[in-house]
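Re: export button greyed out
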Amino acid sequence: MQHEPQTARVPFATPASWAQAQVEHVDELLLEQAHLEKMAAAGAVAFLFRAPLDATLHGRLSRLAREELVHFERALKLLEARGVAFQTQPSSGYAERLKKAIRRDLEGRRADELLIAAVIERRSHERMSLLAEALVEVAPEVSAFYRDLCPAEERHEELYLELAALVVGEHAARARYAELTQHEAEVLASLPFSARLHGGLPEVATEARG
Ligand SMILES: [Fe+2]
Ligand SMILES: [Fe+2]
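Workaround output, generated via the alternate export path:
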């Protein structure tokens, strides 16, 4: 699948003010990041069992799953270094709301699960880039962590898009991806600002946009 510039496909771009508002919530963000990476690894392994029996594809998905676990371990190390306990955390509601758009028929469901995984990877990549910028001064080690993750998350989005195209064809996958991208923007707009990677905008940014 041809790779377009990321900004060309993002209907809602998160403003830098979102990341600025997160600067005081680094511990909560890192705790969430650990949970997100663990879930991402589990999702990748689940996709591995549904993907076509192609050695190259399986190899790429296996690598993706391993990368998520490495991200998970790095988040755990940062939590430990900051003296933050690894513990449960209430869900942001983002993934649950996104998944409400999943179609019921088998083919539609398989494609949508992959496309939603791609949507999440893309948004995560966008917001981790912003956090990397915002945290350079106040938490350089956390900034470096987010920056290091970005290339992998971009690759993950691409792989999930490729896998969705194998299920429903490239044209249908692209059209559906556009729909789900729009849905995701609405989900984000429905969520309050919080110390989470996937939430709404802070008040100031909302007013500035309006
Ligand atoms: Fe990751
Ligand atoms: Fe990822």
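The pocket of fe (ii) ion (ligand 1) is lined by residues 37, 40, 68, 71, 149, 153 (CB under 6 Å). The button fix ships in the next patch.
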